[in-house]
User: Fold these one by one.
Assistant:
Number 1:
Amino acid sequence: MSTITIDGQSVPFEDGETIYEVSRRLERDVPTLCYDDRLEAFGACRLCVVELEGARNPVASCTTMAADGMVVRTATEAIERHRKTLMDLVVSENPKGARIDPLRGLASQELAHLAVRYESDGSRFVGKQSGTSRPDDTNPMILRDYDNCISCYRCVRVCAEREGDYAISVANRGFETQITTEFAGLLEDSDCTFCGQCVQTCPTGALGDLRSMEAQDQPGEFEKTRSICPYCGVGCSVDILTKNEKIVGVQPAMDGPANLGALCVKGQFGWDWVDSDERLTQPLVRKDGKLVPASWEEAWERAAKGFKSVVEKHGRHAVYAVASGRAPHESAYSVQKFVRYGFGTNYVDNCSRA
């Protein structure tokens, strides 16, 4: 069996594993800003560099394949100085993104936490900055604050590699580098499907969930509850974010077996109806052509009489039910059970079947 020695510990590895993957398996704290498990390793930020015995210079652990007999050191004094310099360079280019800020729409703040770790405040290499924000983008879902961008390209790569949309790309070079859409337009005019994958992978808060940002100044603590998206039959795992028992955001579960961190626009952003003021709070029945409030007893009685008269006049196949993707799974189950058991037919559907 092939083995690699990391920080004095010999460990077996499988063909195709990188030094970074093996190091993480050993719970070594190797930092990175451009790495995402779901994407092909890119090696752009170089923060994951390690010392490799026999190599002239430090190597990027995320793109260097493990080989039998390698001897690696992940946290020597020289390596930490190297990482410190890299962080100082990154933070000096976009110091705004290196501040820990709770008002960023629950976006990741990997850069901010690493800046604290390496005591990088942007003062070491003061100079020109890159990235131009798009406050003119009026879409109500995704913040595009490129003053925080560090050009790690994770958003571009997740859009291409995971979604296959290729809605965003990189324009220009050097300090003129800019994350953009085709013809530098708005997201709604591009091929963007508003899946939110770019928000979830961004390490700086340059991309954020605008809807969840609105809840940042509300009182109470954020709570996260694992659930299943009801919109279709795929069964995507989601983490529902709440404050004082009110939904303020939805995030895809990165370990969800059906979606692995992916969601569609409905699953990601279509949650505000839950607490909508327009939702019914009691049954309504039609009287003199108008819907008026009624008791549950009256509503049930009217519904029963209606079903009975239809079946007597037209037969059981005249009854057809459509369940809603906005209802709980238990409600969908009850609807199909009601039709199949109560009327002996399979005339049931769901508006969001996949």
Note: The first strand starts at residue 3 and ends at 6.
Number 2:
Amino acid sequence: MQKTFYQKELLIKATQQRKGLNNNKKDIEKIQSWLNLFATQNPNAGTATGIDGDFGPATEKAVLNFQKFNGLSQTGTVDQKVFDVLAAPLKKAFEDPIPGNNLRDLIVNTAKSHLKNHPFELVINNQSNSGPWVRSYMDNHEGTDWFWCMGFVQAIIDQAASVQGKNFKTLMPLTYSCDTVGVTGIQKKLLTRFQTARTNPALIKPADVFLIQKTTNDWFHTGIVTAVHGDLIETIEGNTNSDGSHNGNAVMNRIRNYKQSKIDFFSIESLVV
């Protein structure tokens, strides 16, 4: 794999605890982030707390609640073993075996694996587009200006391609920009424009990358096509929400009508062959 920053998100340097001599602000922020991410899926667990890098009484109580909820010893401290449980969704998304007989299947199934582990951004230091999932997709970049939909797409393609020993950068450059991938598609003749896609849906295939146009050579959102149904495409996309925003907060499975939107399609076929 080319995008491996996620591995650093799975580790803390030392046991973290209230008034601990080895406390580390970044590690405590990681712990607080995962406590909050756990709360989004388990709102009754009592693990939502501030993300400030300070292991105070509120963080200690949130840790105790997390340990109780998961049947762990209630110590109020977080060593690597406890952190492994906290960060398990990220490890599963990036490292669980992915089934698939070909690259297209692998890409779709990788996207589904991430989806079921609930990638979600956080607001840290008043900055949206933050947290361990965003940093993993964006190679340690985070913050309000770092839209992460393309980072998600490339992480999925990279992970799937690596199963077959392929480098996704032979298909497109490492980038966080929809425009860069769109222009690459034009240059390599891999981009099907929306006008053509509307008249010839057979050109759209699962695992291709959709790019929503703002203007002819300006795209503002992307994701993975997982299925085509008549006038509709089914997608898995990051940095979105229930309204289909290009700056939402989650990875979601969405339905889009490609015949009513200016959606271009970047073919991954050259990586498949």
Note: The chain has two domains: 10-86, 92-272.
